[in-house]
């Protein structure tokens, strides 16, 4: 499998979908929003962008399957894991960032990842044998070595609020003991920001594979560390992720302290 070729083509296809999304945003009709659940929004733009991705990705790897947010395609041995529009709510309100996220996986092994952040036009990418890049320039995680000097990103749940008390305690600790905590609304972009040294870490829970698969590989190829909340490797399908620099183990300890506590 020629990962250099597949990565190059995936970048091209991500930008093709990004242009479609960008053009649709100009005259977006807010009345066409659909609800998959409370606060879980989708639009014709998500669905059409996903169809565009599936058609083009299948053309470069005909025997591939798909794990896709809007359910297009079927799962096979080798799968594209795609979020056509990560940050749908941001997109609908015209608020950056929002992204196209594409990963290729064989089983649980991530072969390549591409994140195209549409509002900035920045494209982040890597394959498992390459460095991480943003627009042809190598990127790496930041060299900040102390938790207290870091800036961190998280995301808020919009479906399951059962762990909010624990989450608030985690947020309190981060806010009180670091340079701050941000929330941007696109997990794919958040991971790209970690990989490129714009912040020191990202954590979130109740995520889906298409939210994180591409970004996890890009962070790792940029020198970062990625685990689930228990410090294990179930961060693609396990709905929990902590990604960061050398301070990631400190993040893990803090999150463990409050996440698994009943008080």
Architecture overview:
The chain has helices at residues 3-26, 44-60, 88-93, 164-177, 187-195, 209-221, 248-259, and strands at residues 34-37, 40-42, 65-68, 78-86, 99-106, 109-117, 122-127, 132-134, 137-139, 151-154, 180-182, 201-205, 225-227, 240-244. The strands form three sheets. A seven-stranded mixed sheet has the order 3-4-5-6-7-8-9, with helices on both faces. The chain has two domains: 3-139, Fructose-1,6-Bisphosphatase, subunit A, domain 1 (Fructose-1,6-Bisphosphatase, Chain A, domain 1, 2-Layer Sandwich), CATH 3.30.540; 147-259, D-Maltodextrin-Binding Protein, domain 2, CATH 3.40.190.80. The radius of gyration is 17 Å and the shape is globular. The mean pLDDT is 93. The protein contains seven helices and 14 strands. 36% of the residues lie in helices and 26% in strands. It has 263 residues and is an alpha+beta fold.
How many alpha or pi helices? 7
- Count of extended strands: 14
CATH topology of the largest domain: Fructose-1,6-Bisphosphatase, Chain A, domain 1
Second CATH tier, the architecture of the largest domain? 2-Layer Sandwich
Query: Low-confidence spans: pLDDT under 50, at least 5 residues?
Result: none
- The radius of gyration is 17 Å
Overall number of domains:
2
Beginning-to-end CA distance, first to last residue: 50 Å
Based on secondary structure, the structural category is alpha+beta
Instruction: Give the overall shape, derived from the CA principal axes.
Output: globular
Strand order of the largest sheet: 3-4-5-6-7-8-9
Strand content: 25-35%
Sheet with most strands: 7 strands, mixed
Fourth-tier CATH superfamily name of the largest domain: Fructose-1,6-Bisphosphatase, subunit A, domain 1
- Estimate the mean pLDDT confidence: 93
CATH class categorisation of the largest domain: Alpha Beta
Helix content: 25-40%
N to C succession of SSEs: HEEHEEHEEEEEEHEHEHEEH
């Amino acid at each position: 499998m020629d990962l250099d070729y597949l990565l190059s083509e995936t970048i091209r296809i991500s930008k093709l979908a990004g242009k479609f999304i960008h053009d649709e945003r100009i005259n977006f009709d807010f009345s066409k929003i659909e609800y998959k659940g409370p606060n879980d929004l989708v639009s014709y733009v998500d669905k059409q962008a996903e169809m565009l991705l599936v058609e083009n990705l299948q053309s470069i790897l005909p025997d591939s399957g798909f794990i896709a947010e809007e359910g297009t395609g079927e799962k096979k041995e080798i799968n594209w894991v795609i979020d056509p529009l990560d940050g749908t709510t941001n997109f609908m309100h015209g608020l950056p960032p929002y992204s196209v996220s594409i990963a290729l996986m064989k089983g649980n092994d991530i072969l390549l990842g591409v994140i195209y952040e549409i509002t900035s036009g920045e494209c982040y990418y890597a394959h498992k044998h390459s460095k991480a890049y943003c627009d042809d320039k190598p990127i790496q995680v930041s060299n900040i070595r102390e938790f207290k000097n870091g800036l961190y990103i998280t995301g808020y749940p919009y479906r399951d609020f059962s762990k909010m008390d624990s989450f608030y305690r985690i947020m309190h600790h981060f806010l009180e003991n670091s340079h701050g905590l941000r929330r941007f609304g696109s997990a794919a972009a958040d991971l790209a920001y970690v990989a490129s040294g714009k912040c020191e870490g990202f954590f979130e829970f109740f995520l889906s594979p298409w939210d994180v698969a591409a970004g996890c590989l890009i962070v790792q190829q940029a020198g970062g560390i990625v685990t689930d909340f228990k410090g294990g490797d179930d961060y693609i399908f396990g709905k929990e992720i902590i990604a960061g620099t050398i301070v990631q183990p400190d993040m893990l300890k803090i999150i463990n302290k409050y996440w698994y506590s009943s008080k």
